[in-house]
Amino acid sequence: MGVDLLSALADGINAAVGPTAAVFALAAIGLNVHYGYTGLLNFGQVGFMLVGAYGLAISVSLWGVSFWAGIGVAILASVALALLLGLPTLRLRADYLAIATIAAAEILRFVLRSSPAVPYTGGQFGIPSHAGGPGFHQTFLALSPFSGDRYDIGLLTFTGSRLWAAIVGWSLVLLCLVLVWTLMRSPWGRVIKSIREDEDAARALGKNTFAYKMQALILGGVLGGIGGVVMALSQQAVSPDQFLPQLTFYAYAVLILGGAATVIGPLVGSLLFWFVLLSVESVLRQGAVVDSGAIGAIRLMLVGVVLVVLMAFRPQGIFGNKREMMLDA
Amino acid sequence: MPDPANASNPLADIAAEPGVAKPDPILVVDAVRRSFGGLKAVDVDHLEIQRGCITALIGPNGAGKTTFFNLMTGFDRADHGTWTFNGHNLSRAPAHRVARLGMVRTFQLTKALTRLTCIENMKLGAIGQRGERLLSALIPRVWKDQERAIEVRAEALLRRFRMEHMRNELGGTLSGGQRKLLEMARALMADPSLVMLDEPMAGVNPALTQSLLEHIKALPRDGMTVMFVEHDMDVVMDISDWVVVMAQGRIIAEGTPDAVAKNPAVIDAYLGAAHGDESRFTPVTRDTAPTSAADDEQEA
């Protein structure tokens, strides 16, 4: 049984630079704003991805609005979800937001896939790429300069549509990183970090912490929503079961791998997460030592092992500051 | 040799009785109540805090001192009652608005922001920063000049509190006493007119106590009013112009430090009604305190 390490490497890199890794980088950048910088426990980031993806798909493919208006709808839907979750819970202790977010994301998924919702959301089959004339996917491809079927870049092979989605996705990642970097070195970022450290201290110094937490929740939620938009664009269709609760925890794994409260952490974390996931899968498939049904489970176990090892030897993540991490908060 | 602080004490001639009116009060409290279940934590009929003075709030454990602080600063909601600060009615005001109006507090358990550096801790204290608004934060040009001015002020305050060597250290690496210093300096960044210090000396080593006391004593000279909760009677006698005594939520006495120390109701509250030896309450002079000579003469 021969294992071609070069092709495993190529599979890993292929996944790491693909649009899915960009989606999770975006979701993790949003979580970083929530959890890393503000200390908000959002366990329903997938809910923001869902409203982003469906906001675009429903408005463009079913209502027939323009592509750019659809992006606007996706962002507004993320803002609305953040307000809905934040207004009742942000005045309370941190755990209430955690409970509300994890529940809301699942409720959204079940409502979208329910049969009464079929005329509005497509029910459990979602909105396919051919729905509504050109639909959101065809409109997106019409903007693409890559009309060819196959592009070879070194070891990697892309289809035109995947290359376009990857370029758009990673450009958005870089744009969002610059946004977070700018904000976190501003006085606004200082207030946000002080809320993470001790909310009462910030209140005693005249900061309206509720308003800041709401702004952070909206900002991180919109970043998650943009991640959902990229997910819809790269997968060409949306369906409710793309948005399972574990996506939130993949995004957390990405964030913790790279290092929470670091600007670049989510990007590197996502590259690493998808590289490990797919290169391991490639080795397992080639080795054919386990049956193919188990491969999906085993590759996640290995990501778990990587996380455990990381927590033992480098709890601050790849880019985090160990000295900071070790201070009792 | 009279203590210079007391010689100029504008409250020296005010009657030592609970709820007495002051010539120029910065904080006026009326009929404030707060109960937790059946327990009346705070039940204050009337209290005025004189502007430009150092007022101590003392009382046995559970007297309601910290709850009173929490109510005044918007960290807790009163069941009933009103209070005005500098003419503003603050009865339902949230904590951040209270601070912006100039009443800034510190906490009994220090809140140094562990993963921010000292200088960041300090800069956070400044009120009205343009860069703290989300959209302005995106354009550094809008807030850079103000930020520089704030940094200069923060560095000056750090020097005054002899903390400049810790400028770039994380808050979490400071000792307990240094955290107290940092918290007080940070409160001053907000340019308060009334500083509310909740047990500023708790857990501070004796060597640092003196410098902390000097800092507090200096605040009225810069136009600030100070109210503080403290258990150490030496400290109270040393620095306060006026002492308010709480027990079981009520104000049972107020007066100059001397008057309060001799008040039998205060002695009862501290020692229980069946006390025999009243001298136990009279502050014992510490020979380590350089300012205690002045106290000695006053007691004599």
> Strand content of the residues of chain A, in percent?
under 5%
Low-pLDDT stretches of chain B:
1-6, 276-280, 283-300
Shape of chain B: globular
- Largest interface, Cβ cutoff 8 Å: A-B, 32 and 43 residues
Short description:
Chain A is mainly alpha-helical. Chain A is 72% helix and 2% strand. Chain B starts with a helix and ends with a helix.
Description:
The complex is a heterodimer of chains A (329) and B (300). By secondary structure, chain A is mainly α. In chain A, helix 1 runs antiparallel to helix 13, helix 2 (19-38) runs parallel beside helix 8 (160-184) and helix 2 (19-38) crosses helix 13 (265-287). Chain A has 15 helices and 2 strands. Chain A is globular and about 60 Å long. Chain A has a two-stranded antiparallel sheet. With 300 residues, chain B is of the alpha/beta class. In chain B, the strands form 2 sheets. Chain B has a 6-stranded mixed β-sheet with strand order 6-7-8-3-9-10, with helices on both faces. In chain B, strands 2-1-4-5 form a 4-stranded antiparallel β-sheet, covered by helices on one side. In chain B, helix 8 links the parallel strand 7 and strand 8. Chain B is globular.
Topology, element by element:
The complex is a heterodimer of chains A (329) and B (300).
Chain A: H1 5-16, H2 19-38, H3 45-62, H4 67-89, H5 94-113, H6 118-121, H7 135-142, E1 151-153, E2 156-158, H8 160-184, H9 187-197, H10 199-204, H11 209-235, H12 246-258, H13 265-287, H14 292-313, H15 322-326
Helix pairs in contact in A: 1-13, 2-8, 2-9, 2-11, 2-12, 2-13, 3-4, 3-5, 3-11, 4-11, 8-11, 9-11, 12-13, 13-14
Chain B: H1 4-7, E1 25-36, E2 39-50, E3 54-58, H2 65-72, E4 80-85, E5 88-89, H3 95-100, E6 103-105, H4 118-124, H5 134-137, H6 140-160, H7 176-189, E7 194-198, H8 206-218, E8 225-229, H9 233-239, E9 242-247, E10 250-255, H10 257-261, H11 264-271, H12 292-299
Parallel strand pairs in B: 3-8, 3-9, 6-7, 7-8
Antiparallel strand pairs in B: 1-2, 1-4, 4-5, 9-10
Helix pairs in contact in B: 4-7, 6-7
